[in-house]
Amino acid sequence: MSLATVMVCDDCAHEVSLSTLVNLCPRCGGLLEVQYDLQAAPAGLAQRARERRGEGMWRWRELLPLPDDATPVSLGEGDTPLLATPDLGRRLGLERLLLKNDGLMPTGSFKDRGFALAVSFAQHLGATSGFTYSSGNAGASFAAYCRRAGIDATVFVEDAANETKVAAITLYGAEVLRLEYDTSAQIFETLDELAREGYYSFVNFVNPIRHEAMKVYAYEICEQLDWEVPDVMVHPVGTGGGIWGAWKGFNELRELGLIDRVPRMVGVQAAVCAPLVDAFDNGRDHTIPTGDAGATMAQSIAGDTMIHDGRRVLRAIRDSGGRAVGVTEDEIAEGMLLAGLGAVAAEPSAAVSVAALLRGREEGWLEPDDTVVSVITATALKQPGALQAVAPRPSGVVAATAQAWKDTIRRETAHS
Question: Residues in domain Tryptophan synthase beta chain-like PALP (predicted)?
Fold first, then answer.
């Protein structure tokens, strides 16, 4: 079933078998990327995927690197709603704005796509334990899928991880330890060292399988639009696995002849810690440590540097004709409120993709007639403190009497 053939190193082009549990390139330490023989794709692939709707993400299995004889570890991930939001669109001056709501995934965030695949792959090849690091959402997802697979999970959480997210990780039975560190670069150096010594990590990009699941964004979105391609896809960026995977997926669909163009990819970070934006604005092909990760409410994407210097994400953005955008804390709060007008509750790191739309209209890189897909990566219930701080307060207090309620309720809602 799978069209995956081999993993290839970004830096030295060394090939690694898909029957091997490996993180970085064993020759040079570069990032590995799964390759596919799309020329061998069966006719009617998209139609067969449509007929397998009940399988969620796994109905696209031919385009994922899971061996044919492997059984997916699944909690029901994939096929999240793509919601038209005409009222919100009118407010933002966009005629066709859609929200892809991955806050409805099994553990409440888009991380479930990646861990469903990565844990399935590792379990099939005999892994009995693994680790990741996380600001919270990835840890909860990893812990849940490892619990489902019978794999012992260790999660190192960032010091900014809120107690709600940490509690979710421990709920699924993972061992959780809080990290002490000076910069994000220290964490990434540790990950590289452990990978060289043979410790198997589930961290995005360091693990070459996880971000492959994010290609399914492209498949789902284009199918939900009846194979129309959005003009712009807006995605929050922490490590960048989501936007890179989606970009890869759109390009695969074009190679398969299912679409004839690809969208502009817009990556969004909090302005106070935006290494991607800094590199993009200054014309570099790599990020450098930038900003203060502790100064933003967008905890899930907070970081002063990026894995392997963000080269893949910068390449995807530039090759697509897109851009990197940094949004302020006030804009993030406004983004949460605007997402609510679209009937979606977004945590701060997810709401940045809505906040960026305001900037896009003001600066002119979004046109009124663009078809725009803004990805909501996690539910606001992941960060209840931020939700309570941003959401409007109740209107007041009313007595529990019919007359008091009638004085408040709009007349047209009453039965005749």
Answer: 73-377
Long-range contacts, 288-292 (Cβ 8 Å, 24+): 289/183, 289/184, 289/185
User: Which strand (E) or helix (H) includes residue 49?
Assistant: helix 45-51
Radius of gyration for the alpha carbons in the chain, expressed in angstroms and rounded: 21
Residue-number span of the structural domain to which 293 is assigned: 79-416
Q: What is the pLDDT of residues 138-197, one digit of tens each?
A: 999 999 999 999 999 999 998 878 899 999 999 999 999 999 888 888 888 998 899 889
Identify the CA nearest to 239 among candidates 144, 319, 349, 160: 349
Domain count, the chain: 1
What's the CATH number where 410 sits?
3.40.50.1100
Query: Rounded to an integer, what distance in angstroms lies between the CA atom of residue 202 and that of residue 137?
Result: 13
266 within a domain of the structure (yes/no): yes
pLDDT in tens, 227-241: 999 999 999 999 999
Residue 88 φ/ψ region, left for φ over 0, alpha for ψ in the -120 to 50 degree band, beta for the rest: alpha
Helix pair angle (241-255, 215-224), 10° resolution: 60
* pTM exceeds 0.85: yes
